[in-house]
Amino acid sequence: MAYLLGIDEAGYGPFLGPLCIGATYWEVPDELLHDDVDLYPLLEPIVTTSLRDKTRVMIGDSKLAYKPKGGLANLERAVHCFLPKPMASFQQWMQEVAVNWHAWSAHSPWFDEYERTLPCDLESATLVSLSQKVTTHLDDSPVRFAGARVWCIPAHRYNVLLDSFPTKGALLSHCSLTLAQQLIESLPPGKVLIHCDKHGGRNQYSHILQQLFPEYLVEIQEESREISRYAWGPQDRRVRCRFVAKGESFLPAALASMFAKYTRELTMDAFNHWWSQHLPNLKPTAGYPQDAKRFLQDIEPLLEKLEVTQDLLWRKS
Q1: Pairwise CA distance, residues 228 & 9, whole Å
Q2: Is the model's pTM score more than 0.85?
């Protein structure tokens, strides 16, 4: 068997809240592992790219699936229907889906005691029906959903990491590919295709790949504005990696973006809930630059009293 890995992020631009990098990984027959592999036709009975079709699961760009005032139901239709077991709470989600969460969130008091029942907005009958449909189809399909993981990096951890990189784009590339490395090491031997969205317009990734996979020479196959492609390793465990502009058109990467976005929205709810307990009339924030500055100004009188330093709160750029 061979493996497809799709990786994408949510929360790259904000000053407040975590950077979330999602990955989904899939087991496929060796003959399906080619450059034009496309899971959408194979999963057409259960998957759609349209929000209009409520009989199937929409998997696409998370920015289309989620609107700030629209709730989390569209994201939940995707992420909860593909998971092999129910995730009933925020704390369970973060412990089982988010990598190293206990250690990385230790300096963020807004996550300590926060809890929320999951799913938040998706009706249980809809979840049960769609989950059964997904499971039944995958059981009869040559494709197997093997799992999902998210690197959810709170501000404190983000700032520590950023000190080691020249730019936040370099940080994103390194973290995304380290997540891929961890997943590859956890999988049985086989050929692998890694698919990532391009990071901040970057076209060259070979030096990062060579650092993370030093046992083999990383071959540069193409580096252009549209796509950058690389390969390494012996033939029976050959790893190919590509970075594609608008990479969410690849189903595993699109679902990864939905896992990342869902995790970020849950953690932002925890963040806003904690601050509202200390300042009841505080307007919540999504963490993006302009509104983040407003939010910081609103909470500034409380920072010293609550022992919240700038480094714990604000992501450096």
Answers
A1: 18
A2: yes
Reported confidence tier of residue 63, pLDDT bands at 50, 70, 90: confident
Average pLDDT over residues 48-60: 93
- 3-state SS string for the chain: CEEEEEEEEECCCCCCCCEEEEEEEEEECHHHCCCCCCHHHHCCCCEECCCCCCCCEECCCHHHHCCCCCCCHHHHHHHHHHCCCCCCEHHHHHHHCECCHHHHCCCCHHHCCCCCECCCCCCHHHHHHHHHHHHHHHHCCCCEEEEEEEEEECHHHHHHHHCCCCCHHHHHHHHHHHHHHHHHHHCCCCCEEEEEECCCCCCCCHHHHHHHCCCCCCEEEEECCCEEEEEECCHHHCEEEEEECCHHHCHHHHHHHHHHHHHHHHHHHHHHHHHHHHCCCCCCCCCCHHHHHHHHHHHHHHHHHHCCCHHHHCCCC
CA distance 34 to 238: 12
Among candidates 18, 59, 9, 23, which has minimal Cα distance to 186?
A: 23
How do beta strands 19-28 and 2-10 pair? antiparallel
Angle at 270 between CA 269 and CA 273, to 5 degrees: 80
For domain 2-269, give the CATH number.
Answer: 3.30.420.10
Instruction: Answer for the pair 265, 119: CB distance below 8 angstroms, yes or no.
Output: no
Peptide bond into 301 cis (omega under 30): no
* pLDDT band at 214; cut points 50, 70, 90: very high
68: pLDDT strictly greater than 90: no
